# Entry
Amino acid sequence: MAEVTIRDIVKRYGEVEIIHGVNVDIRDGEFVVLVGPSGCGKSTLLRMIAGLEEISGGEMRIGGRIVNTVPPKDRDIAMVFQSYALYPHKTVAENMGFSLKIKGASKAEIDAKVRQAASVLDLEKLLDRYPRQLSGGQRQRVAMGRAIVRDPQVFLFDEPLSNLDAKLRVAMRVEIKELHQRLKTTTIYVTHDQIEAMTMADKIVVMKDGYVEQIGAPLELYDKPNNVFVAGFIGSPSMNFIQGRIRSEGGAQRFVSDHGTVLPVRPLPVEDGHPVIYGVRPEHIALGAEGVTVRVAVVEPTGAETQLFSRAGEDVIDALLRDRVDVRAGDTVHFVIDPGRVHIFDAQTKRRLT
Amino acid sequence: MGSNRTGWLLLTPTLVILGVFGILPFIYVLWVAFHQWNAFGANPYMIYNGADNFRRLVFDTEFLESIWFTFQFGFFAVVSEIVLGYFLAQFLMRDFPGKAVFRTLHTLPLIVAPIVVGSVWRLMMTPSIGIIPYFLDAWFGYQLNIGSNAGAAFVVTVIMDIWHWTPLVTLTLLAAIVALPKDPFEQAQIDGANRWQIFWHITLPMIRPAILATVFIRLMDALRTVDEIWMLTGGGPGSATRYIGLHIWKVVFPKTDYGYGSAISVIVLYLTLVLCWLLYVGLVAPRNGRRT
Ligand SMILES: Nc1ncnc2c1ncn2[C@@H]1O[C@H](COP(=O)(O)OP(=O)(O)OP(=O)(O)O)[C@@H](O)[C@H]1O
Ligand SMILES: [Mg+2]
# Structure
């Protein structure tokens, strides 16, 4: 149990700077999810917290103690690697019990903890197997097991569920969440999965190209993304973005896209003709008798929802509808957009205009 | 069927060479081992004498002594080579200036013919002209004379073997270490293991197959060393370094006792196989069922 403070952390490989002064404050017991596109430095940051990568600049504290030069074994952290990193010559049980054995725990204690973790992870029948005799998902669960038999200061997870099938992934997600609620151990969790990020996190850190783009609670990021990148990254299906300008005529403002589509906006403190990016989430669009006229290109019903891929003139606007609708590809329909749920970003800076 | 025939055809030269130079001589040795044959003796013909040669072996103290010396030689040489080779391999895993040069230089002993190694070492060790006795005397006041001191002679043969063959061990272990995946070692650090624990619980088990293969190769080689020892000590003083290969040579050539020499060869082969089998059973086989 400890807070983690990341201050101006920089990572360089020789001349190349990978992480450019990242700041994150993680409170004791918090569940923080790191998201970002592939190659943005999530694993690198996690490995620096673990002590496996040298810190090129800045300050890292775990539980108040500066750990910049503390070796991994003395940081009291548990980590699940993206690549599992199982010990190939040890059985599942030995893999899970190794850290306890190193700490000098008794055989009985190791056995009990391993068994308990195995039952949580549904690995009981596999305890005597070797990693090479396991499937990818089973290996991933063993890697999880190795972490949860311990009682560390901080849990670090690097995409621990990426190789599981959908059903198992949901089950494990709940399992990890429950584990966190029970142990209240500070957890830092890297994922690509929107739903994992939204459902598990107390706080999400969105990264891109070695910078932190935004930090906030899941719904905060969803409702008030700081910039175009976060807006597009959080939420699935992804937000619609349309390039255009704000036009004000007679006190009323509206958005006119480069292709001429007119869309409603809230009042904005910008002058006439200001170039902006208009953002609206597909799930915030409804069908109506009048509104934006679009031609539906593709209809994708998934049962619970229906996704419409459509065009308003040259502009692409997708909608996600909760109800089943009687719309076919080729139909012309009207989209109703609530201006209160529209996001306007500066076209130049890509930042949100409040 | 056609490709099968071509396959055999392509293999034929190898099989013929292997047969003529490997298998036939072996069968011949087996055959000779059951005869009394001294081609330059009073009766130059082969006379079948059943297992007499083998019966003679059991009471031959010279032979038994030689086996014992050989075993000691092999043990000390191979164990030292593995330990030294491991450290050198780990050393070569690091980056340091002049690494490429060092790596090349350190393998040079491997390409020197054993007979040359033996003669050079003999020159270096000979009292009054050799450099080693000179410095040992100058620095430590120790009089090294491998011509009269049996213990010293034994130690020098072991050191020579180490000097000659450690680079081979270094190379095989280096290959094994380079091929190791990185993440189990990182995981072990996370799991709180210190360097020694990582070595014992992770590194050693993971390069164990390479170590065992190297032990087998080196042991079989060490047990049949002849030329180097023959040049260095000639088996002396007395019979202190008369390892089994040398012993067989002495029986077969100066004494021209072909039948008995063949019998020793067969027994030595058998003992080597038994030794390897014991090592295998003791170290390799239990691996899969092992729980530490
Ligand atoms: N040893 C290295 N030398 C140079 N660059 C490296 C090294 N390791 C990683 N990088 C670079 O650092 C960047 C961040 O890598 P990292 O593994 O942290 O990405 P990631 O966000 O975890 O991606 P993914 O989601 O695909 O796992 C990448 O652009 C990668 O090319
Ligand atoms: Mg990664």
Remarks:
- The domain at 63-257 of chain B is CATH 1.10.3720.10 (MetI-like fold).
